[in-house]
Amino acid sequence: MFGESWQLAQTYAELLWTTGVENGLIGPREVPRLWSRHLLNCAAISSGFDPESRVCDVGSGAGLPGVVLALTRPDLELILLEPLLRRYEFLREAVESLGLSRVQVVRGRIEEQASGSFDAVTARAVAPLDRLVRWCLPRCRSGGRLVAMKGAKAEAELEACVPTLRRMDARSWRVRDFTLSTVDVTAVAVEIVAGDTGRA
Prior knowledge:
By secondary structure, the protein is α/β, with parallel strands linked by helices.
């Protein structure tokens, strides 16, 4: 799944278990399962984006899934959006170290971005789905998508969010399993297609 970027993926993993752990971006207990639970889990969603899409990773933190998407899908234009200085600085270091020329690191919040700015918005471990929808969906172009990585409670979160989705004229929504069959990894995400932008 990383193809020609395999060596870069290993370099990124080393950054996570050294600088990432030192800065509190990755817990020490996560290091043994860094690949299965984090890197491969994020790589699984890479098939969910149209070619050449402009994608914003909200609350990018340690770069999961944003940096992983940049490695697995070099055709994408990635904006890693992170409000906290320490995480922002880590992301800048990672992007520079990996030579990711189509990735921009921005210190800020999704609410500050213009309506309809992105083909897709991603989020992982950022906020409850209802809040993510209110923040992110207006920033997707009409027909663009919010891909929110969730766990076992994805169905329940989505069901509770339906009134908000209807109020915001979302076109469609579903829980989607993204699978990497070669390594038996599945990522669960809520995928929401935006209607007309700017609706609240």
